[in-house]
Model the fold of this input.
Amino acid sequence: MRDTIKHPIANLRSSGIRLIGIIAGIVALAIIAELFAWAQNSTPSQAPGAIAASSSTTAPNVLPPIRLDESAVLSHLNQLINWYRHCTTGIQPVGLPSDAIYQDNAKSLSSQVVRLAFQSAKAEAAQIEAQQKKSGSHQSAETSQQQNLLQMEARTSSQIDQLQSQIETLNAQIPKTPSAARDSLISQRDALQGELELQKALLDAIQKMAAFVETNGEISGGLEGGINQLARSIPDVLGTSANPQKTAVAPTPAKPSIANSGGLISEAVTLYGYVSAAHEINGILKETDAMRDAADRLRTPLRDAMRSTIQRSQQLASQPPATDPQQLQAEKQQFQQLTERFKQLSGAMLPLSQEIIVLNDSKTNFEEWQSAMSRESRQVLRSVLVRVSAIVVALTVILVLSQVWRRITFRYISDPRRRRQFLVMRRVVIGFLITVVLVLGFVSEFSSLATFAGFITAGIAVGLQAVLLSVAAYFFIIGRYGIRVGDRISVAGVTGDVVDIGLVRLYLMELAGTGLDFYPTGRIVVFSNAVLFQTSTPLFKQIPGTEYTWHEVVVMIAPDGNHQEAQKKLVTAVNSVYSRYRDTIERQHAAIERHVDIQVERPQPEARLQFADAGLELLVRYPVEIRRAPDVDEEMTRKVLELIETDAGLKAAVAGTPKIRSAVKG
Done:
């Protein structure tokens, strides 16, 4: 019964102790908030502009304070960082061997300028801090907050250590304590454990607040905070990152120079690269001048203060030696102040002076780089102009040659067919020469061109197969036994006179009629030149130089007629008509013998006797001019009819009406 009463009492005591710990934590957090509010309200406001000590007129021997502009210092650092990035990454190398040297010099000099600028800025920040100490406005709200939080963090950590030690002691005593007193020790341990958890939560809140105050203080903590924040933006120069090797900017690989690769396009691209790089360098030179002027403006108040400090020291040195110990002590203090002031001024002004010198060296480096690019660009421009002039001259010569070829062709070649062949050959040759000149002038990488041309040729061969076949057939058509304008040909069942021969198509004036008398239909038939290679559509044409074909006079011999007498008289009649144009046919036969290497019999009328379905058939075959075939056939018809009417023996030997037909089929 007693044990059951003790347990509720112990539990109640433990809960009371935990409640007291929670109340104590809430009170502690309220104290932290009050400390933050007191730290922010207790710090006097300070304008961020020019800083000057308020006690500058308290003593006649105290030098005037140095007026430094925080915003000017931070602005200079911002502009300098932008200038550094432009120097290191703003200029693309154009492939010159000296690019790597100038680029390394630019990076080294710009890094040195940045380091000197930050060194001077930190010295100026130290001077401003010293002046703030003298004026009583040194400690800022952020500093007070940090100090308070550090103190509270230390106290909380100490309390946590004490609680952990007490808990460990109780844990060691509980197993050794009798059961009657063990419940009390367990209640004490639980209460201490609750207070320990509260203190840990409080420590975590204090640490988070301290980290926030530290970060916020670096961002808005005056000149020094701004300098530190800017320093983090260029870790490759100041080495403020955790791993500088990973943050270092890799050098831009120099692209290979194509200025001497031999192509007009490559030289034009190289010239454009030179001009662009020179323009970029010109912009960086202007920025360098602006940085130098800004550094000189920052150095002006320091230089004036340094001059006044030196003059004051000279005045003290020129005074007669004092005998009063107090006066000697005062002079000693003044010399010490002047020495300290001189060190502060030299610590800020010397890096600025060195920065100006290095900026001048950097400007010289960029000017030399720009001069090297200008020299190379002039050489490339000269090469481009020479190449363009050579291309223009070559094209002019080719065009003049084309005109000379054309005039010679029209003057010395009278045959239209041969003249057309020479003109076509002229177009092919001139086009090929122009292509060669343009390729040699504009293209530099012939290996790539060959690969590209191979793929293009394969694509054209597949996609334009019919067109290429027509172009190939064109050269067969205009060959030795080819077709010329004016020839009468038969192709795919169409007979006509050739009116034009194109590179891809053939144009015919369609002719209609019987095999003896053809007349134009008024239509133009167009065939692809590739029809020459089609086996299903044969093409018929006359041998070059010939304009005659064969016709036949056909008569049926009566069963009791004298076919020998009829043959003799009919051949005589045909020869009488043929004799009028015999010379023309023989000249054409001579042209055949000149064109072909086989023996061809001289054309003349000849008789043939043969069996037909209707009986015995006598035919006399004779050559006739194609253009005059209708007139000749009409005259031949009249001559044969007149002979039959006037000769009784022939009239008795012939059965039926004679007829004239073409001996050539198709």
